[in-house]
Amino acid sequence: MDACKKYGIKRYHQVSTDEVYGDLPLDRPDLLFTENTPIHTSSPYSASKASADLLVLAYHRTFKLPITISRCSNCTAIDLIVRNGRDGEVYNVGGHNEKSNLEVVKTILKALDKPESLIHYVKDRPGHDLRYAMDPTKLMTELGWTPKYTFETGIKETIKWNLDNQDWINHIISGEYLRFMEKNYTNDYKTRENISVALATFNGERFIKEQLESIIPQLINGDEIIISDDGSTDSTVDIIKRYSQKYSYIKVYHNDKSNKGVIGNFENALKRCKNTYIFLSDQDDIWLPNKVEVIINSFNVENATLVLHNAYIFDSKNNLISNVSMKEKIGSSTKLFKILIKNPFIGCCMSFKKTLLNVVLPFPNKNDISIHDWWIGICAVKTSKVYYCDEKLIMYRIHDSNTLGFHKTSFKYKLQKRLKMIKCIYKNRRRFK
Question: Which CATH number characterizes residue 37's domain?
């Protein structure tokens, strides 16, 4: 503002927001925000925006700085206000197209022919505003502005533009922007310890892209994705190779001898992980956007070595199979006796501190353990603290090519597996000291 005053700019325009007014009651659709509505913010975040407005208005009154303020953004409206708006005035921008968040999301899913089961409900943020609604009468009467689009026409144009500009979209969600910020402003943007994602692939061409695209946006500078491939014969290797060429933090390794099986494949990935926390990942699930944030917070708050979390269960077409969650299917106990009866450790729902690998690796002979994640979970229970997070953080996919799933097995088979694991624990008892 001082620079604007010093160099005599013709107009300073402040693009503000409806959040400075606070919120409106849900049961009063007749109420709208006008330019005379008192500023009444609900959170420190919106208060910072309101303070910027007040600073701009103060410079106008004290130093006669030529200013205008628009609340809610619209490019054509902003241009009109900058050119023709009255000095020192505030203009509300709105199109009388009030919709709830849920209505907007359902409209987008319908346009994309996607199921509503993709909707993920989250808790309201602190100081959450319930409703905004702007009265643009002043802008319309003084400057002759009218909205060009209705909600229905505007959302169609927006969806079409995004579909036609996938390269731009992929760049934005790739995490490259975040890594640029972290590289250049590390002290401000690196807010957590780094993670390694250990991902094992084998003939996963159907879903590997979707799996990777759900992980990449959650990574920061210094994170890595370690992929071990077990001799895929489909296009999996080509797909992950393209990703590794685009993102330097994706590292692809091939087993020395193909077809080591899922246990050997994950061991090949795990022994190459270098960061503080290791997240196991399958090749066919979807991470929900807050997975890394929630898990890292669980490590910090609970002082755990291993964190296990809940999951949605869905099919190959992204439809929820039922309202039953992973927890309800396999349980959540972290007591050794109960774990041996019913294993709750599903790898794609597990993250742990790298230090646990000192106990876990090398994996016992595959004839001694039936699956790697069960062994990792037991090692954590025997040597440190395990925390169960009840939040559903991935969409666990069940399909005809799953290596594992919820397949029915005989009592004899289950008994043999458990006796084998008990024997394995005894044989490796020195690891747990």
Answer: 3.40.50.720
